[in-house]
Amino acid sequence: MRRKHRESDESIINITPMLDIVFIMLIFFIVTTSFVKEFAVDMSRPSNEPPKKEKLSDVIFVRIDDIGQIYVRDRLTDIRAVRANIVSGLAQKPDASVVVAAARDADVGILVRVVDQARVAGAEQVSLVALSE
Amino acid sequence: MSRRKHNRVEEESDINITPMLDIVFIMLIFFIVTTSFIKETGIDPQRPTAQTAASKPRGNILIGVDVNGFIWINKRRVEINQVRQLVEDAVNENPESSAIVIADEGSATGVVIQVMDQVQLGGVVDIAVAAEPEST
């Protein structure tokens, strides 16, 4: 009888301290978790490796000047026409890459919109260069 | 009489907490796995709109650029030459970091490109610019 009692005593592990710790960890992680809800457009920058030689003719060159005017292949273009121009450029050379060169003072909004339109037009490689005067 | 009472109290006080423990552990594991200690920028600029904007749930380095060209990381204003060091620190904590530059629509392109250069020098290749998704 006595032995049996002892055995039952041993078999019950006191889990209360563990529960305390688990709950404190749970509350800590609930409080510190914050989910990112950002939407973003990927921008690839030319890497620091020596640039591979691309013939200028294989590139659809989009320039944004410092007052926000857009030139697709050196022709002044409205933002709504950028997509159509890139589509026609890609139709001529399907593997051409799009290079967007922006002046330092141009607004980021225009740059993002141009990159966005190039993506919508189906350009696979859109790279970004800074225009140095 | 007294014996019966004791017995009943004993029975009632013995609640089975095993299912609750299961749920608590699953919640704990979920929150441990999803926590990625994001550093808020501290500013909320007017983002440009874009049709190809995609959700970036893994971006954990957030860099804000406001309309005046000031750079904000972790609710502090930083200079351009501090960006690289801060990005390197973040990469040391989490090698699979990706960066999101949250730039105001009206901020200058030069600053944003400089920031992206510094982020890349700090060792992060996956860089995106925050945008508001536009319904087509």
Structural account:
The complex is a heterodimer of chains A (133) and B (136). Chain A is α/β, with parallel strands linked by helices and 133 residues long. Helices cover 41% and strands 20% of the residues of chain A. The radius of gyration of chain A is 30 Å and the shape is elongated. The termini of chain A are far apart. In chain A, helix 3 packs parallel to helix 4. With 136 residues, chain B is an alpha/beta fold. In chain B, the strands form two sheets. Chain B has a five-stranded mixed sheet, covered by helices on one side. In chain B, a hairpin with a 5-residue loop joins strand 3 and strand 4. The longest helix of chain B has 17 residues. Chain B is elongated and about 70 Å long. Chains A and B meet through helix 2, strand 1 and helix 4 of A and helix 2, strand 1, strand 2, strand 6 and helix 4 of B. Strand 1 of chain A pairs antiparallel with strand 2 of chain B, so a sheet runs across the interface.
In short:
The complex is a heterodimer of chains A (133) and B (136). By secondary structure, chain A is an alpha/beta fold. Chain A contains 4 helices and 6 strands, in the order H-H-E-E-E-E-H-E-H-E.
Features:
heterodimer, A: 4 helices, elongated, B: 136 residues, alpha/beta, five-stranded mixed sheet, 4 helices, 41% helix
